[in-house]
Amino acid sequence: MRRVILIVIIVVLISTIIGCWDNVEIDERVYVLAIGIDKAEIEKSEKMLFTFAFPNMQLAAGGDAGIENIVISRLGKSFYCTEERLTTRVDKDLFVGHLKVIIIGEEIARDSDKMRGILDAFEREPLISRKVRIAIAKGNAKDVLETEGKTESLIGIFFDGLFRTRDRVHGYDAGELGRVLKRLHQYGEVTMPRITVEKEEIVLEGKAVFNDYKLVGWLDEREKQILTIIREEAKTLTFSIIHDDLIIPYCVSDVKVKFSLNNENEQMKIVIEIDVEGDIRQYQFNPEEDIMEPEFIKKVDKVINSTLELKTKKLINKLQKELKTDVIGVQSYLEKFHPKVWEKEKEDWERTFPNLDIEIKLNTKVRRIGLTR
Amino acid sequence: MAQNSNDKTNNNRMNKNLETNIETFKEILKDCKDIVYRKIEIGKDIKLNAAIIYLDGMIDRNLVNEYVLTHLMLTCRMTEPNPKNRKGQFVEQIKKNVLAVSDMKEVETIDDGILNILSGETVLLLDDYEKIIIIGSRGWPMRSVSEPITESVIRGPRDGFTETLRVNTALIRRRIRDSQLKVHAMQVGRRSRTDVAILYIEDIADSGLVEEVKKRLEEIDVEAVIDSGFLEQLIEDNWISIFPQIQNTERADVASAALYEGKTVIVVDNSPFVLIAPSTFNAMMQSAEDYHERWMIATVVRILRYFAAFLSLLFPALYVAITSFHPQMLPTSLVITLSANRSGVPFPAIIEALLMEVTIELLREAGVRLPGPIGATIGIVGGLVIGQAAVEAGLVAPLMVIVVAVTAIASFSIPSYNIAIAFRMLRFIFIVSAGFLGLYGIMLILTAVLVHLCSLKSFNTPFLSPFVTVAENTSALKDTIVRAPTKFMKR
Amino acid sequence: MFRDNEKISATQIALILTLTMIGTGILTLPQSLAKEAGADGWIIIVVGGVLGIALANIYGYIVKSHPHTKYMDILSMHLSKYVAYVIVVMTIIYLLILNGFIIRIFGEAIKMFLLFKTPIELIIFSMLLVSVFLVRKGIETLGRFAEIMIPIIFIPSLLLFMLALQNAEMKNLLPVFQVSIKEIVKAIPIVLFSFLGFELLFIFGFFVNKPKEISEPINYAMIFVILAYIFLNSMTLLNFGVKQTQHLIWPTLSLFKTIEIPGLFIENVEALVMSIWVLIAFTTIAPLHLATSYLMADIVGMKDNKLLALPILPIIYLIAMFSENIAETYAHLDKITNFLAPTIVMIIPCILALVIYARRRSGREGNKI
Q: Per the domain annotation, does B153 fall within a domain?
């Protein structure tokens, strides 16, 4: 008994002499909320331009609102080296545990090796949550980070809010690092949100398409919407349908997608059945027709159907021919439901996919039309 | 050993001669001015010499005057026996017919006589008679039965124990009118000769337990026992531990309930706190009120209490650990606010926490010493004012004050004062360990404390029952964190 | 014989064993299974588990037929004193090494998630100190401790896992039944590692107060562990899919990085999970430590094993610090699970059981004549 006490005392004494290693006061840390990665302007350099955005605490201590953002950029070969070198200029511990957003500049995104390095850096670090958002900037990430949001001054929080609103409205986890990494692990393909600066405002729209760990193309907002439908990730999306010179917004509320494989006559054919339900949100004030007639709705429905089908076909065409990337999930379907077929196809998928016969069967329904007839 | 006879060299027996005896008593009780010697003559014709000796202040004067002296001196004259009868019968007559007192016995040794005098009985010495007659005449100033200060409830009886053993046993007897309730008396302490009573219900309590309690009390060898708290430490299983293993209470209903559960109650003279053995952690977290209220309310309150116990133990330590080591756990906006509030504070969080805790302890101690309302006010006002001033002086962060205040409040909701103190001490250890190793430090120390609690036994009952004897005794779980509806509780 | 007066109930020993088993493989199981078997990991768990139940019952048989006899005594009764000595020494070495590596892995995980700059020596040392504390208290305390730990560990874990369902995709559990028999057999040692711990039944069986009753709780314990592992594996796969799971070193812990409790005080739950993880690890390390001290006391002939608790500490510590980094630790650990563990855990007990059975048989026949 006495021996144990003695040893405990010794241990405690020793640790008091040596000191505590991880004990850092909460106000002695700098909480990096957003990170940007760009190509260095210097020619033929291994280095990249890293931008760190964090709030300035000192000003906040004054008590008023208006916490200032500090945005610092440094050149460096890797994320962690740069982070460390930054401490030569910042007097506090850089802490990435509260990181909210990672923005990667377009040029870097097109570089497969650099991307793989960056992605691994973020996956390996235990402090970086898998719920961090990642987006690709059209242009420079630095420019994006240096723009202040209109409704919220703190950069990281503004971005975070931006992404979350998108989640809530459109219904899926846009650009979550965890999901992105997961998909990249599986097939090397993924889509990430696109972020741009337009007239001093930050805009989050569209998607960047990745194949083989690098950026291969863009989808705009319309195309992105269709993609979300095919991937069954949509919650509420609104399409403007044109019918009889009227613009009818159609708001999607539910989507069901079913893949099936048609393997007769040697040629592999994938059939994608999409069931879409939605509401009509606007027609015309004092219309001539009565909308509440089933006949009328059927007519509108047909128009909706054909419009959407056209869009879908266009998107698939673009994905197959132009971008040559399977982001709609055919690989996943084959691997899970037809493993034997996948075994044969997976080697050559790069070449098979662009020429794959994909048939779309779209089925739209109008469910609700609001308050008036 | 409960009783020790002081080895006086002269024999302990009485002499036949009254004067000699009186001298012996006076010799032993020299310089005790509060001992009174009253010589009387009994009888008209026989004229027996006698003396009563008593301790002034400890006797019921009325009883002695009216029922002893009056009868011995006056009434005896009127009913004198036939002069032909011998003296022996006269003594018998005095004992049986004259002394109209309800409690009378005889002893033979001087030591016994002295003990009885010192206990407040009246000693009657008769000439030519070798025995001492002891007349029960205890009556000293005592507190009336009132509500216990330390354990008040909103609903429930308000009679608390007093310092007189007989009153306390009576309060318990009233609630258990069962002949199986046994009262085993003994004396503890060489000089104090404090009366101690062990109460138990014979057919419910485990006989091994009762034997063990008796054994431990008999083995005590001290000079004096002033209060039951002292006794408690002498018979505990593990006196090193910071946790109490014997419960104490001032309330009669709690003691009676414990008896019904098969426990033993130890009543110590001069102490309003009775001991309950064995006891478990769970029992100490219960309040009498739990049984008087409805089951759902009682359950919620109990859960709240356990949560409060958890808070009072760990809250400051968690604050230190999370803000210094793992700020990633907090929501970002909170982190920014905290960080802004803390800039300018000179001390690291651990020193801050320790400082505030020490201050609270000082306030608490001070509050106990000050009389009544002032004490309570000082506690509240002092806490608020000092906390506010400290924040404004830039010495501590505002959140720290909140943490410490909540912790203090939480610790007051622990029913058992002993456990609350134990947690207070442990809190400091947790804060220090949090300062070194963050959450890991907290978990390690928590594990160590749990291990210690697991090893504690209170008179052969594991201290953490019924959590720990789940397999054998699952039904006991219905009285722990939840309080099952009265229908399901057999007792 | 003060120490040997301690008694634990049958339920308590089952709980101790459950807690010891969960803690060895819980961190890495999904990763190894995903690598070997894709989405069919649960099949391997079931197979391994059935094997485990069989073994546990063999142990139970051995313990039940020799109530209140120590491991060493049982061995020397049937296999001669020298063989018993050798086997016990081997078991001690096995327990020490296993404990050392487990505590190293545990320390690395803590360092990774909780205390980044603190030297791992201190992390390991402090954990070992608390373990010494428990070992000195003895097995009765351990039994009670296990009873308390079960709800404390499992209820929050269950809640947290439920929250992980947020990101679950049921499709990730496909494709099924892709593994071949050969692959299953190859993967069994992985699962075996996750069930290591029930061999302590031999050493603790001596203290059970009603040995006849141990079969039922032990079987329940094994089934519970199997189900827990299947649950864990499935949750990990549901969230991450096969490929990602293969890529993570500790998928279980990374799983908790994806949980978000909206509106709650805590943002990143990993630190909270690591706190529970400390408890899980402790309930694995301390029983191993205790068993080692009992066996050592038997070998040396000491009556009281309390004194050995502290001297064992430096041995475990050195073993823990032996490998250079985490890759080496796992490499060494693999070697053990492939050779030493099966010997101690499977082969020797089976031989012992056969010998006992044979003797009983012949004894009975002998009596008849």
A: no
* Residue A182 touches chain C, beta carbons under 8 Å: yes
Q: Which subunits count as partners of chain C given 3+ CB pairs below 8 Å?
A: A, B
Among the listed residues B179, B170, B223, the one whose alpha carbon sits nearest the alpha carbon of residue B197: B170
The closest of C15, C11, C26 to C231, measured between CA atoms, is: C26
Q: Do B191 and B270 belong to one domain? A: yes
pLDDT tier for residue B481 given thresholds of 50, 70 and 90: low
CB contact under 8 A, A23 and B338: no
Please determine, for residue B66, whether its predicted confidence score (pLDDT) is greater than 70.
yes
Cβ contact, residue pair C133, B472, below 8 Å: no
Nearest chain B residue to A1 by CA: give it. B240
Give the chain C residue nearest A131 (alpha carbons). Answer: C258
Does a structural domain hold residue B10?
no
Q: In chain B, which residues have their Cβ closer than 8 Å to the Cβ of A15?
A: 436
- Comparing CB atoms, the residue among A15, A24, A31 nearest residue B336 is A31
Query: CB contacts < 8 Å between B and C, how many?
Result: 93
Structure tokens at C76: 């020397």
ipTM of this predicted structure: 0.89
Contact B454 C145 (CB under 8 A): yes
pLDDT bin (cut points 50, 70, 90) of residue B79 is low
Cβ-proximal residues to A298 (8 Å cutoff; 6+ apart), any chain:
none
The domain in which residue B174 lies consists of 165-279
Chain B residue set in contact with A, beta carbons under 8 Å = 323-325, 327-328, 332-333, 335-345, 348-350, 435-438
Task: Give the separation between CA A146 and CA A142, rounded to whole angstroms.
Answer: 6
Q: Is A60 on the interface with B (CB under 8 A)?
A: yes
- CA dihedral sign, ordered B26, B29, B33, B38: negative
Task: Give me A354's structure tokens.
Answer: 């662009």
Name the residue ranges covered by the structural domains of chain C.
3-368
Question: What are the φ and ψ backbone dihedral angles of C291, each rounded to 5 degrees?
Answer: -60, -40
The per-residue pLDDT for B5 is: 42
Lowest mean pLDDT among A8-12, A352-356, C34-38: A8-12
Residue A16: its pLDDT value, please? 59
B364 and B412, same domain (yes or no): yes
DSSP string, C117-149: SS-HHHHHHHHHHHHHHHHHH-HHHHHHHHHHH
Cβ distance of B462 and C144 shorter than 8 Å: yes
What is the nearest CA distance from B319 to chain A, expressed in angstroms? 11
Contact C126 B444 (CB under 8 A): yes
Tell me the chain C residues in contact with residue B468 when contact means C-beta distances shorter than 8 Å: 144, 147-148
> Are B303 and B441 in a shared domain?
yes
Between chains, do A185 and C270 touch, taking CB under 8 Å as contact?
no
Q: Which of B314, B315, B440 to mutate to test the interface with C (most CBs of C within 10 A)?
A: B440
Whether B150 is in a domain gets the answer no
The number of C-alpha atoms within 13 Å of B388 and in the hemisphere containing its C-beta is 6
Rounded to the nearest angstrom, the gap between the alpha carbon of residue B305 and the centroid of all alpha carbons in its chain is 23
Domains along chain A with CATH numbers: 27-219 (no CATH), 224-368 (3.30.300.210)
Residue C369 pLDDT greater than 50, yes or no: no
**Which amino acid is present at B45?**
D
Residue B254 makes CB contacts below 8 A (sequence gap 6+) with B151, B276, B288
Q: How many CA atoms lie within 13 A of B270 on its CB side?
A: 16
| A131 vs C: CB within 8 A | yes
Pick the CATH number of C3-368 from 1.20.1740.10, 3.40.1000.10, 3.30.450.20, 3.40.50.10890: 1.20.1740.10
Do B313 and B434 belong to one domain? yes
Domain count, chain B: 3
Residue written as token pair 């909140």: B402
Q: B341, A29: Cβ pair inside 8 Å?
A: no
